[in-house]
Amino acid sequence: MPRTALFDLDGTLVDSVPDLHAATDRLMARLGLAGFARAEIVAMVGDGARALVERALAARGRGFDQAALDGFLADYTAHAAVRTRPFPGIPEALDALAAAGWRLAVCTNKPEAATRALLEGLGLRGRFAAIGAGDSFAVRKPDPGHLLATLRLAGGAPAAAVMVGDHRNDVLAARGAGLPCVFAAWGYGPPAMAEGAAALARRPDELPALLPRVLAAARPGPRDGGSGATR
Ligand SMILES: O=C(O)COP(=O)(O)O
Ligand SMILES: [Mg+2]
User: Fold this and answer.
1) Using a 6 Å cutoff on CB, does residue 108 contact ligand 1?
2) By C-alpha distance, which of 107, 211, 215, 209 is closest to 160?
3) Which H or E run includes 182?
4) What is the pLDDT of residues 88-118, one digit of tens each?
5) Residue 119: phi, psi to the nearest 5?
6) Ligand 1 proximity of 142 Cβ (cutoff 6 Å)
7) Active site located where (predicted)?
């Protein structure tokens, strides 16, 4: 059974806030509303596009509006990879994990069309065995079913998988699914969101050594001196 690393996208693999910010500000401009500072957008990311638009509108005293969301999605999907880039060290960390036999998958709350456009735009699509996006299944993070469905799509199994993410939703989903979560401290989540994570990584280049350790600690086998129980 190959080991599988499930990666969150926004704030973990890529710094996507510049394009999320630009698309949100373009939406606000179309509505005659004021734009935002980067830190405000960072705090609105993590629960998918609908939540981002809802929070942006609420910050300007407006209720949710489906036409605003549709307009945002069309614009963002077409411009998802303009300024968005992988965090420094991510491509190399993915290379090292793949070379060590890890299967890689993306588990994101971002809608699937935008996720595919972004990964293709950055030349990253081919690295992943599966994409589980925010609208790919009936549930999404923090529901553990989102991770488990993505894992199934990737041909992996919970007993040999690790989640890597930067948000409380990633930690909660992983815990619910019985997987260890590595918290990506370079991302958008404040440190308090790491609560419940199995480990914290400060930089992507720590991942190739950290993931096998976290998996071994979560699933002690006879050769690791553990009981062999997998919970
Ligand atoms: O789209 C979002 O709000 C968050 O996406 P993520 O799950 O990749 O962090
Ligand atoms: Mg994230």
Assistant:
1) yes
2) 215
3) strand 181-184
4) 999 999 999 999 999 999 999 999 999 999 9
5) -65, -40
6) no
7) 8 (nucleophile)
Choice from 109, 116, 168 to test ligand 1 binding pocket (greatest atom count within 8 A of CB):
109
- The minimum-distance atom of ligand 1 relative to the CA of 44 is 3
Q: What is the CA radius of gyration of the chain?
A: 18
Question: What ipTM was estimated for this complex?
Answer: 0.94
From the CB of 161, is ligand 1 less than 6 Å away?
no
| Secondary structure (DSSP) of 19-31 | HHHHHHHHHHHHT
Residues 184, 195: Cα–Cα separation, whole Å: 12
At the top level of CATH, the class of 17-78 is: mainly alpha
Q: Where are the domains of the chain?
A: 4-15+85-224, 17-78
**Known binding site for Mg(2+): residues?**
8, 10, 166
Give me the catalytic one of 8, 15, 47, 170.
8
**Architecture of domain 4-15+85-224 in CATH?**
3-Layer(aba) Sandwich (3.40)
| pTM summary value | 0.94
